[in-house]
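Structure representation:
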Amino acid sequence: MLKVDGVTKYYGDFKAVDNLSFEVKPGEIFGLLGVNGAGKTTTFRMIMGLLDITKGNITLNGKKIDYDVTDKIGFLTEERSLLTKLTVKEQCIFYGVLKGMKEEDILKRTKELLEKFEIPEYLDKKIKELSKGNQQKVQFITAILNEPELLILDEPFSGLDPFNVELFKKEIVEMSKKGSMIIFSSHRMEHVELFCKKLVVLLNGKSVLSGELKKIKEQYRKKNILIKGDIDIKEIEKIAGVVTVTKKADEYEVKIENQDIVKDVFKYVSKCDNVTKFSVEEPSLNEIFVAKVGESYEK
């Protein structure tokens, strides 16, 4: 288990991370979210042992993370960290050796992963000759060569088309099923919702939202109602507790302040003609994220 316990990090007088705590158990995919500058990258670097912690503790399976433990960790950075003059094979050997792997095991694993990501013909190609998407595949492969116990993914889908996003998703889920602990960070909230059952949202280095995604959604009072039919937007907007009404393609999205307003909207809609859909939906993680970060800025 990865345990981040009361971690604080200062750069001089600037507090980059403020008393942060969370746990990631084997097989879990955990979301670490926040706007730019929220403290995500600093947190990742402290977990990796690349930055000293000002206060608090980070342990992996009960042990402080040092060079003995980092061989069990994989890290996909948001920035490109490939040596572009090397071939894919040379790049993988370089990273694999750093993780304490034998060259014959590195080559076997590299070929397996290149097959999985449908680029086996690129083994002897130089990194600089690859497209951005294929460079991202190689960078991901180097992060998982050692079949890490802990995998940190910072914007893993950057530069990928939808088809290749699916390849990445499949591998990430497969690794979690094998017991890897995975920390996932992305600005694309729909990707986070696909994977993460638990998450933390950071703002100015401090946790402003944390817990199980399902419970977070249940506790967030604002709901959405999707309606198909002949309704009058202005009439619905008059109902107390209705926040907005938006026409989307062939249906209407009604945002309400809380669950209690559903019955009032339904009372009106039941009198309308040709209503074929009335569905109460949980808000998206994106809505909750924006609302929570916005509230925090206003305080």
The longest helix spans residues 162-177. The mean pLDDT is 91. DSSP finds eleven helices and 14 strands in the chain. The chain has two domains: 2-213, 221-281.
